Each structure stands twice: as C-alpha cells, then as structure tokens.
Amino acid sequence: MEIIKRKDRKDAHPYIPELKELYQKGRVTRREFLRNATLLGMSAAAAYAFISPFAPKKAMAAAMPKRGGTWKCGMSLQLIDHPARLSWTEGANVVRQVSEYLSDTGPDNITRPWLCEKWVASEDLKTWDLYIRKGVKFNDGQVMTADDVIFTMNEWLNKDVGSSMLGLLSYWGGPQNIEKVDDYHIRLHLVSPNIGVPEHLWHYPGVILPRNFEGDFIKQPVGTGPFILEEFAEGERAVLKARKDYWKMGEDGQPLPYLDKVMYISMSADAGLAAFQSGQTDVHYHPRPSDYLALKDNPMAKILTVDSSYCYPIRMRVDLPPWDDNRVRTALKLCQDRKKTLQLAAYGLGKLAIDAHISPAHPAYCEKPIPAYNPKKAKELLQAYASEKGLKLPLKVKLATKNDEAEPEIAQTLKQTALAGGFDIKLDITEAGGYWDRWTEVDLGITSWTHRSIATMVLPLAYTKESIGAWNETRWYDDEFSALLKDAEAQLDVEKRRSIMCKLEDIMQERGPIALSYWVQIMEIVNKRVHGMEAHPTHMHTTLRSTWLDG
Hints:
Helix content: 25-40%
Radius of gyration: 23 Å
Number of helices: 17
Structural class: alpha+beta
Distance between the termini: 56 Å
Shape: globular
CATH class of the domain at 309-520: Alpha Beta
Oligomer: single chain
C-alpha cells in the first residue's frame, strides 16, 4: 500500500490511503469514509470524487436566487451575553448569523473549512496547523487575523468565562499550547491526540470574536458573518439586517446574503404553529411530532427531514440519592418501554436507542441490541435497595423537564411504565425558561441534547470530570470510561475506534447516568416560498446566508 508522506503532500494525512483501502474492501461505510477523510484534511470534493467518479454535484437551481425580503421564524429567545457561554441552539441561531466558525459542519454531517482555509494534522494527531482565510473583515471594518482567533481561543479556555469549550478542549492543555506561526497560521500542540479538532471548532459557542471583544455580544455584536444585529430583546425578538460587504459571493456574483433581513420572534410552540399556519412566519422552528401531523397536508408547507443524534436523555444526578446507587439507575433504565415512548412522543419518527449517548448517526457506532422493557427486574433491584435503606416501595422521585418539545410525552410515558417497576414519579414540567434556569441542578430530569457529529465530541462535554461545572449535569465520570475515551479520540483506524465504542457503550449501559429511549428525526417545516434551506441535524440555521424568498 502506498503511503503518502507529509513532506510530499502537506494537505494529505498518511492515513487517508489506508482509509481508502478500507472503504474499497467494505470495512468502513461511505459515511465513515467521508467523515474521517474530511476531518484529516481531505477536501469534501476530493472525498466524494473518490467514492464515485459521478460524485454528487450541486444541482442547478430551478431559478436564479432572488434578492430581498424578510425571513421570519418563531423561536424562543433566551439571554445572550458572551458567545462562548452559549448553551442553547436558539441563541446560537441568532449569534451565528453575525459571527462565524473556523469550520462548518453541513447538513450532510461533513465538516469543511470556513474561516480556516484548510487544516493539516500530524501523523500522530497531536499537532494541527490551522490556516486562516485571508481578506475576511469583521462588520466594524477590522481585518480578521490569527490574533483574533487566538484571542477567541483564550476566551474558550478561560475558566472565568465559563464556556463548555473548556471541557471539550481539555486535550489542548491550555493557552500555552497555541502557537502563532504568522498572521494567518496557527499551530496547536495538543497534550493528547484527537481526531475531532475540526468538529470541535464548530461547537456552537465557538464563534470567532474580534480581539477587542469586551464580553457582551448584544452590546458589541461584531463578527465576520453575513448579517448585522439590528435589534435584540430577550423574550421578544431579534432583527438582523444584511451586510453589504460580506466576504462570500452568491450565485449572481454579488456578496451574500440574498435576504434583506432575518427576524426571530419569541413565541411558544403552540403560538409558533399558529403563526406558521396563518402565514405570519416562514419557518416553524423545532416542530413537535404533533405539529408534523398538523402541517403535513398543508399545501404551503415544505417538510425537510434528516437523521440525527438529537435526543432526550433522562439523566440522573449520581452525587445525590437515590441516583448515587447504580441499582436505582439501572432500575429506571429497565422501566423504559422504548417502542411505546417513541410512538407516543414522536409518532414513530425516530430510531430506538440504547442507554448510551452514542448514536447510529455517529461514525464508528457499535450496534447493540435494544434493551427490553423489564419492570420485574427493575422492581427486584429497587426492592434490594429499599430494604437496605429502610424504605418502602414504590420509591417516590420527582422528574423535572420542559414543555416545548417531546419531553412531556416522554415523562408521562415513563411515569406510567415505571409504576410497575417500583417507582412513583411526580412530574415537574415547566416552561422552557423555567427548566433551563436549573437544568444542571435538578436530581432527575429530561434534557434535550442537540446533535453532535461524532461521539468523541459529545462525550467530553457531559461525561468527564473536566466537564463538571459546565455541561456535566449528571456529575458522573468514570476512570475506565475516560481512559477509553482518550483512546478513541486518538484512534485513526475506524474499526479499532468502533471496538472502543463498544466498550464505552457497555459502560454507559451498565453503570452510566442516563436512560435513553430514542434518537430524534429532525424536521424543519418551511413555507414553500423559502429556498436554499436544508434541515440540519443540530436544528441550527446554518444556510441563511444563501436562503432566499420567492414572492
């Protein structure tokens, strides 16, 4: 097998020829080849071309995109201050129209360079060279350079900022390992190898900020993106107007975006459905399965779908009783009737899950049998626990969550199915804001987790010691799990990484902190006059720069 040395081709990682061979032999899937090859620096065009000489090409538009108009979407609007502290996709949808990322993970789940022109990884994945795009300006006229990128990275790694990026990027080892080679070249010297660097640069709190950023995005909405923040009122609306000097061109040879304005109007899920039906909005954000049923025959509705790793983990605080006892956690997992939950909460629109935050949408996923509903075994475990603690069954617990997605149906279903297993569950269901104000503090909750492209991205965010204090809402970590996760992050061979994922999934199922019934099929419901939008696995509005309105 030919090995292309780094010194011969600076844009090719030496593992790519082996990855090609694995694909040709059928040992890795098409999706796994594309994901891994692009992460290692192969262009998406080259990766698709290798898979087929008839690789997908951009379809010719039925008509030249039209310019002008205001795109409107009903979506809750929470507090926005420092972008590195973003915790919700809704806030990120506003910020990302003004500010941009070094990389871009598209609706096809492939990560491409964006504010980076390219990246090059060393053979051992411990050194990453990032080449910053030249000629890009912030909306205040400043030219973006490596100094702005390094300033932003330091904000991510600043404990006082409180960003989830800190736990995610713990393998960076700190700001001292970020080297400025020149004004458009940054070198990362990692303390441990990691294949997910390009993915992590797209984590939604990771927008690039100007070096003079003072900490409040609403007061200083400076970014490189296609829109300018004109108005923001928490809980009311956000208005963004088109920038005239954006760096990327449209199909008509003029700077993007095509739209004149973007408007997010804060409203509840029910109000959002009504607004879309009456034509007041162009997009019904994050539709519930019941909304799909209400709109699927609407002649003005266009329904876009994509598989994802979006999910609703039922998560348990392992530092608080009774969830500090694995018998109780296991009992609750056994009380899930997954098929019933999927049907009642999502009308069957999704895929059944195991009790591990690793999805079939993730490359190197290790397929496992779906656990059966077993209230008898659950009750046996709970009885042993109760007898030891001097308690009587049913065990009374409180389950907290929010009411704007499928969580109430999941909670109600679990309340019913868990009664036979020895649990008496009291429900505490509030408006979304009421839950997000306390989501890391409740002892038993259902938290919606957005899609992450690879498992080695989501796991460090929520299931390591380093993520406690940020997004580790369960306070669970496991030394064996953490060591295996480090191995997976450093593993180029897809088959070997899958074998590690098998062990990680087993640990989460056997002693982990979450119960999980299904993976969500993402839907985006748009008016037929909206063009250039695609459903994204994260529910992120990543394509508004090229979205346009017909009429």
